Amino acid sequence: PPFGSLKLNTDGSCINNACVGGGVVRDHSGKIILAFSSSFGMGNSAEAEAKAILLGLRLCSERGLPISFMELDSLLIVNCFNDLWDPPWAIEYILRESKNLISSSASISHVFREGNGLANILAAHGHSSQ
């Protein structure tokens, strides 16, 4: 991200209905400010992706870390968050709560899996550390 701003990358994963997620916050120089991985219980891939965003934003909010940019590899979540698509009912409340934790000027964008590598690894870690 530009100088003085923070970017949150998140990813969710669901294997046999076991949902996990992870993410990383970096500053303008790429320095890791915060990293996380968590199990979310049973659900689907969309829920895992949405819960990873919510967890990341909660952790940032609790620590006073203002997020300016978010990137994730789920086009569904990006388009629902940006109000381009109606979200599935199972994640509507998660996205609503996430939006309440971030500035209206913050942006969320899609990034291909290759550009979301560390978040992907942290999410996968959740499966092995339940």
Automatic annotation (TrEMBL):
Gene Ontology terms, MF aspect: nucleic acid binding; RNA-DNA hybrid ribonuclease activity
Top-level taxonomic group: Eukaryota
Segments crossing the lipid bilayer: none
Database matches in Gene3D superfamilies: Ribonuclease H-like superfamily/Ribonuclease H
Domain RNase H type-1: 9-125
Coiled-coil ranges from the UniProt annotation: none
PANTHER family (alphabetical): OS05G0353850 PROTEIN, POLYNUCLEOTIDYL TRANSFERASE, RIBONUCLEASE H-LIKE SUPERFAMILY PROTEIN
Record-given protein name: RVT_3 domain-containing protein
Biological source species: Cephalotus follicularis (Albany pitcher plant)
